[in-house]
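Changelog-adjacent note: as of this version, every example in the card shows the full chain rather than a window. The one below runs 163 residues end to end.
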Amino acid sequence: MDAASSLDANIIKDTDKQNEKQAKKQLKRTSVISTIVFGCIIASLIFQCMSIRLYYNDKIIILVAAISSIVVAVTATVKQIIIQRMDTLRVVHNKIRHEVNRFMLENNMLTRNVDGLEDQVVQLQVVEQQLAKIAEQQSTSADDFVSLVKEKNEILKEQRVSK
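Full-length structure tokens:
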């Protein structure tokens, strides 16, 4: 891991720590709010049960109001539990930010790899040019060698004929 990658990783770690602190604070706030809501719901249920018990024989309207309040209290409890289990918008935003930072780190590493490969390509092109020059020289040398062999063969034929 090079220096740039190390710096990127440290930045992401610092951001993660800040996000964790914010998530803990948010969880504490949510817990306090949930406790208050649950306390109100339980108090409402107790009062509704007391009103049903005390005024059960007097008026039907009180009975209907108390039962409907119990239904609303139970519904509010279920909704509060669902809300408490859901991630807040801030938590989701922080998770997305974390993924963006992780992708940025990966992109930086890939960019450095591509830059390194481009440097290697340039070096390989230089080597290729040098090899092409050597091959060209050898081709010329090979042509010269072939012509020398032909000349030698002609000289040998002449020597045989003169004998």
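Structural remarks: The radius of gyration is 43 Å.
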